[in-house]
């Protein structure tokens, strides 16, 4: 089963999730021939590391302005040339956009937001959460190439195999005239991005209002972490939508996740299960979040969190 | 402008996890008794985007398309109450349980039957299957440019200007028409209907299309092998303490013991 990986490159560096796709490829088949489309800017600098990860052919795609339509055009060419049976990409801004468009162009189908893959006697079983995380679905794709976009952090980054070489092929594609990116506006964020933070403190409906987030911010700052929220505080405007944790928001996998006043809807829990340790603070002992948590405090967060914060300050000298 | 909005009817996604059941024999969700279906929340954002375009471009016509089997007419007429001009219900048992490529295929046939469109708006995903594919596949079928995750859609000088949400901010994208735009929650909530709108919608009937009008749905390319509920083990260690303050202190000590702080 030959595999084509879409590796996103920014300023010559591979995106972290791209290395995870090699682990996914090995899960599908240990001895597949792996080709890669390196797409972005500075792609040539990434060839060596892609070869060391196991790529035998690297297609280079370095457009001036990357639109999904242009990416689909590049990848379509590489797909035809590599004749891969499976195309793997990350469920990133780009991947989520191009998986269906590529499927349409190649007359095949895609499964997006995948969290597990299994090779069942040559049949690829593709798993993703559905119904807001209330259910999981196993799919197969009957047409080739099978297009799969994988959620970040589902697979561990692949280890480099050391000093391999890869054939490189430069791709050309024409910019579509009917669409263009005029500008990219980066919204300033304080501290690390929530998806990458080692510590996340999340607030829920149980906080009762926006004021509670000030206390969570103090706790998060003390731990070098960031604050997020479940859906209700975002809907109420207590916390920005960009900080929403859950399957319809950000998927997080920190070392420590402290969920405060969060009851634990399926859609929220599905977004935090990658966390190494989950601590739930909630006065409702029956709250669903305790099913996902490693440690729990059943009590009023208004009393628990200040005591916790003071004690951490004392222990860490912060 | 000629605007088409794709609106999906789904089981209510806000039901408590305990009420969510699956029939393992048929791989289908068992709707809880007494819980009515709702308009998919992302579809509501798409409808709001359409209404804003109509506000800014008087004389625009909004046609709302919904696809499924046993669609709830009264529920979907909300679109008419809010200012949509026509509601087309593509309702046929033959269109139950389609996969995303087949859904996009039927929608493409419907759009071709409508003939004229400048923009198609749909949710960035639907809150049931959450695949985020239909709009983008439809764009492919219609050979139209697509922009996903829109938080703002404007039309001026014959072109669309769309702000697309990305992980570190947003992209500003200019697109020719006709185009397909998938709309994200950042655009804002759907407005509420007024009495005049509700009364007008009461008098209006949806248009029904059947498979005979559009042709059979393409076969499935994606097969659902198994639908199941994830098992979560309850092995939560509760932090002891006579008072909440003591629990907080003990939690800090536990985190220190685990070398997490």
Automatic annotation (TrEMBL), chain A:
Keyword terms: FAD, Flavoprotein
InterPro entries linked to this entry: DHS-like_NAD/FAD-binding_dom (IPR029035), ETF_a/b_N (IPR014730), ETF_a/FixB (IPR001308), ETF_alpha_N (IPR033947), ETF_asu_C (IPR014731), Rossmann-like_a/b/a_fold (IPR014729)
Gene3D superfamilies: HUPs (3.40.50.620), TPP-binding domain (3.40.50.1220)
One GO term of the biological process aspect: fatty acid beta-oxidation using acyl-CoA dehydrogenase
Keyword Electron transport: no
Binding note for cofactor: Binds 1 FAD per dimer.
Needed co-factor(s): FAD
Record has Flavoprotein as a keyword: yes
Residue ranges of every copy of the Electron transfer flavoprotein alpha/beta-subunit N-terminal domain listed in the record: 3-183
Binding site for FAD: 205, 230-231, 244-248, 261-268, 282
MF-aspect GO terms: electron transfer activity; flavin adenine dinucleotide binding
Family: Belongs to the ETF alpha-subunit/FixB family.
Protein name: Electron transfer flavoprotein subunit alpha
The species this protein was found in: Dehalogenimonas formicexedens
UniProtKB/TrEMBL annotation, chain B:
GO molecular function: electron transfer activity
Gene3D superfamilies the record matches: HUPs
A Pfam family of this chain: ETF
Chain ranges of the Electron transfer flavoprotein alpha/beta-subunit N-terminal domain: 27-218
InterPro entries, per the entry: ETF_a/b_N, ETF_b, ETF_beta_N, Rossmann-like_a/b/a_fold
CDD domains with a match to the protein in the record: ETF_beta
Protein name: Electron transfer flavoprotein small subunit
């Amino acid at each position: 089963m030959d595999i084509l990986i879409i590796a996103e490159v920014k300023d010559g560096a591979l995106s972290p999730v791209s290395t995870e796709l090699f682990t996914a490829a090995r899960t599908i088949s240990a001895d597949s021939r792996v080709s890669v489309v390196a797409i972005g800017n500075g792609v040539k600098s990434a060839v060596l590391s892609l070869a060391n990860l196991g790529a035998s052919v690297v297609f280079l795609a370095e457009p001036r302005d990357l639109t999904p339509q242009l990416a689909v055009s590049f990848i379509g060419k590489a797909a035809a040339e590599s004749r891969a049976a499976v195309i793997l990409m990350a469920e990133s801004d780009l991947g989520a956009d191009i998986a269906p468009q590529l499927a349409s162009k190649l007359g095949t189908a895609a499964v997006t937001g995948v969290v597990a893959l299994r090779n069942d006697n040559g049949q690829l079983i593709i798993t993703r959460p559905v119904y807001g995380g209330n259910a999981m679905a196993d799919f197969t794709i009957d047409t080739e190439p099978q297009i799969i976009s994988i959620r970040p952090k589902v697979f561990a980054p692949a280890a480099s195999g050391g000093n391999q070489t890869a054939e490189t092929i430069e791709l050309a594609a024409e910019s579509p005239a009917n669409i263009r990116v005029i500008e990219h506006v980066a919204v300033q964020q304080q501290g690390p991005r929530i998806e990458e933070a080692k510590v996340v403190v999340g607030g829920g409906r149980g906080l009762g209002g926006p004021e509670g987030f000030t206390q969570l911010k103090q706790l998060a700052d003390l731990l070098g972490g960031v604050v997020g929220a479940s859906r209700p505080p975002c809907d109420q405007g207590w916390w920005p939508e960009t900080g929403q944790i859950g399957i319809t928001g950000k998927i997080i996998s920190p070392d420590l996740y402290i969920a405060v006043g969060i009851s634990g809807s399926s859609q929220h829990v599905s977004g935090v299960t990658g966390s190494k340790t989950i601590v739930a603070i909630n006065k409702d002992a029956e709250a669903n979040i305790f099913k996902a948590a490693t440690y729990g405090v059943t009590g009023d967060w208004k009393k628990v969190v200040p005591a916790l914060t003071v004690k951490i300050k004392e222990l860490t000298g912060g | 402008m000629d605007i088409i909005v794709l609106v999906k009817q789904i089981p209510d996604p806000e039901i408590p996890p305990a009420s969510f059941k699956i029939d393992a024999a048929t791989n289908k969700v068992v709707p809880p008794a007494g819980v009515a279906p709702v308009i998919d929340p992302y579809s509501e954002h798409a409808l709001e985007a359409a209404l804003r375009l109509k506000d800014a471009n008087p004389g625009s016509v909004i046609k709302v398309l919904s696809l499924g089997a046993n669609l709830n007419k009264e529920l979907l007429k909300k679109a008419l109450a809010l200012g949509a001009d026509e509601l087309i219900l593509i309702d046929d048992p033959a269109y139950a349980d389609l996969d995303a490529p087949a859904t996009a295929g039927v929608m493409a046939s419907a759009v071709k039957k409508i003939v004229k469109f400048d923009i198609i708006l749909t949710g960035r995903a639907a809150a049931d299957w959450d695949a985020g594919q239909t709009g983008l596949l439809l764009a492919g079928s219609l050979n139209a440019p697509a922009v996903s995750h829109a938080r703002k859609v404007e039309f001026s000088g014959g072109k669309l200007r769309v702000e697309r949400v990305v992980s570190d901010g947003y992209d500003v994208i200019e697109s020719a028409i006709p185009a397909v735009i998938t709309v994200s929650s950042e655009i804002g909530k759907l407005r509420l209907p007024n009495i005049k709108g509700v009364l007008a919608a009461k008098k209006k009937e949806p248009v029904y299309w059947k498979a005979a009008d559009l042709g059979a749905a393409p076969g499935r390319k994606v097969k659902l092998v198994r639908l199941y509920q994830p098992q979560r083990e309850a092995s939560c260690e509760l932090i002891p303490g006579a008072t909440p303050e003591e629990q907080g202190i003990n939690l800090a000590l536990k985190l220190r013991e685990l070398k997490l702080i």
